[in-house]
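Two entries, shown back to back:
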Amino acid sequence: MPRTVTLFNVFKCMRSMVVEDEALLSEVVASVLGAEFESKHVEEVRDGETAWELFQATSFDFVVLDLMLPKLDGLSLARRMLKLDRNIRILIFSSECDDYTIREVTRSGVLGFVDKKELSLEVLFAAINEVSAGYPYYSANAQKQIAKMWEDPLAYYKLLTEREFHAVRLIALGHDLKTSAQELQVSECTVRRHKKNAMKKLNISDESSLMRFALEKGLVKFKGGLDWTEVSHQKH
């Protein structure tokens, strides 16, 4: 149950950005921020790269963004924003609510997530109210997914090392051993070993089963969300 937070006076001093390629949804969110919450300034952007350029040039307090954006996906954008400004409050919308998406969002530092399938004016108001005040907000479907993952002792992220996971994901995205090795800054032999170890831990015996696993867990739905500089410093 969302707490009751009165933000209207606070919002009058806040600058907000809406990053959404669906024009109608973007206009609705911007209208709610401007008319209902009286946000000082609301900027609408349609793609991730433009949003990133604007964010670097202008000070913002609150950002609402879609996960699946043109040019630069929402999770990669959120990570960049948080790296530049740890105080920025970010709310993500997504039509994806799978294991990978939820895990990466919760690990990113983003405060809020709403499954678009649950999106209504009531949910929108509650999410903006909470996240803009610095409180976490996850819609009901997202909360169920988090609970399910937490309770599953065989969840892939509990079985695999970070390196094994990223090797599997790159291969599932269509990278061969050479390009996967270049991305992870390791040898092809190391990638092959990570893949073999991961398949053994997941009880997967062939490439087609590996791809099915990747599809089921949402590993191939978007390409962002990975900080390669961070991964490159992890142990092989």
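entry 2 starts here
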Amino acid sequence: MRLRRPHRVSREEVRITREGDTAVFEYVDPSIRSVGLKIGPELATMTDTEVFERFDEMLETRDEFMAGVDRTLTEIPPGRPQIEYDEFFGQWSLRGQVLRCHIADDGERGTVFCIDDEELDMAAFGRMLTTFSGFGMRIALVDEDDVEYRPEIVVREPDSG
């Protein structure tokens, strides 16, 4: 199960433990992921109420920041490289947030993703996606000749028949 993003709650809905200079916030609701907030040496002299207030302020600041984030995604124009190899990390990375590709079965290597002029096997494709860990993803499967076009999307149950 994917754990949900931490959000503001009442003091009774979170347990606070301390690990050195870090306060760990564990939600009573197990579907919400825990958070470690590094406070520093002052943590040793803070009450749980003060620690919780600091946590709540951090979440409020995050929420205010996210409200102002432009959610427009970048799609690299057709004919331009969508991915680039990062020598330092030894893996491919996306240049934008929208990816056009083809799925193929190469037999020996299994499923491969054809992006630009590169073929990434499942492991390389997965490593590339890990740079977006914590994000969500929508996948639209289209005819191989239509990857450069935005399909019309209808939210409904698939036709049975």
